[in-house]
Amino acid sequence: MAVARGPLAIIAGGGDFPPALAEIAARQGRGLFVAALDGAADPARFGEIEVTSYRLGQLGRLLDDLRRREIADLVLIGSLPRPSFGALRPEASTLKYLPHFARAFQGGDDHLLRGVVRFFEERGFRVHGPAEIAPELTVPMGALGRKAATPAQHELIARGFAMLSALAPFDVGQAAVLADHRIVAIEAAEGTDAMIRRVAELASSGRLKIAKGDGVLVKAPKEGQDLRVDMPAIGPDTLRNIAEAGLAGIALRAGRVLVGDRGKLGRLADQLGVFVEGVI
Amino acid sequence: MAVARGPLAIIAGGGDFPPALAEIAARQGRGLFVAALDGAADPARFGEIEVTSYRLGQLGRLLDDLRRREIADLVLIGSLPRPSFGALRPEASTLKYLPHFARAFQGGDDHLLRGVVRFFEERGFRVHGPAEIAPELTVPMGALGRKAATPAQHELIARGFAMLSALAPFDVGQAAVLADHRIVAIEAAEGTDAMIRRVAELASSGRLKIAKGDGVLVKAPKEGQDLRVDMPAIGPDTLRNIAEAGLAGIALRAGRVLVGDRGKLGRLADQLGVFVEGVI
Questions:
Q1: Signal sequence span per UniProt (chains A, B) (predicted)?
Q2: Among A170, A176, A183, whose Cβ lies nearest the Cβ of B183?
Q3: Which of A101, A258, B97, B231 has a CA-to-CA distance to B18 between 20 and 30 Å?
Q4: Domain total for chain B?
């Protein structure tokens, strides 16, 4: 999708990615408006960039503000604790949107996210992915730090990605851990960090043998995952977790996983003695 | 494989299955010899049936005893904590077999099991699966108790088995849990019980919503799994675990998963209000 050059709104949840994206967008010389979601985004982390805070129940006010500023392009980025419908405390200008969100809330996270995207699109906004605005926040081809995967590790990585592809029709399997010549963990509802912890526990209890330089984490988007609002991501904690679990490194689908500041993550990888590599 | 009618040896590890198999084999009116592996099998659980105990390091003695009794057919059944090679304490008559087992020990559990089967086959024995001797120890088609899967649950079950089949080329994925219209857990190295506990934790922490009557466990052999020595199994603990996790029931590949005493398991399923069903 081509990126329009009018003003851009960033609707920001928690974590490192929203401030990083805002910084890059600000440097692109286009109008920028940052809407920070109360309870998720920390306005102090955006430095010089002006931030306006909204509660989820102030959606009507947010729409009015976007329109008044003639903003048609927006990015939704950052973590958001799944809100309870009852905690929305909608303002009067938001009440009319409740039926839309009541429907969106009745389903999984994917369903909710699709509902949010549709909500903005039906009102004339274009929803962009962070990778369209700032591809430098995704993992590139090759290693981020000094270490790269060995040929033996690349074999495990290839097998891991082939397995994730085989799972694609089943809407599951965004990540897996391979070690000891086999797949030792597959992620489903528990999330990547919990899966890595499981591998660490299996290893420390002796039920799983991970030789030095053996284990790898592979991570990729699910087929059909909407990369505009639901791009897989790793960060410093992921690196620390895999190092603690005794794994050798992480392989990611190049351009399709958010990593934030590549240089910072590469330096952390070097400190921890692990590799982070984008592969196609 | 046709079952020869000469005397049969049961080489027994731990758990409910070895005594159950011994009881059935004894009723079949053929000669029976039960070799209980020290530290795994409990001779007291075999009731009236005579049992001879062997340490792993007494393999030479076991082979001599089998030959003296003119036994050509054997079944290996029951759990065995993965022994450390150093703890074998081999007797003189066993020393010559050490190179074979040193090789078998250098690999995963599958590799070790294949090595054990080959060891006996190379010495003229026929290794049978418990399902050949006693198909009544496996799950039949249909429900074991009063409850059966609903049409909605059958849809989840079909999706679960399709997913396990898709994983077949990757030598992983013997079980999965489906709930809330999706796959919520896939088993790899952690084992079925640990996977069920994970689902229970996700549900109790509110990260996963399992409506009453929603969740199902599916379990099947891996492609290429040697059902003679490595048949998947469930037991009373599996039922208690899924009930505790709030799941509605268990679906198993009919004839290809050990359940032990079908009547007992069906009654427990009824007590717990869950279903256990064999499907093809």
A1: none
A2: A170
A3: B97
A4: 2
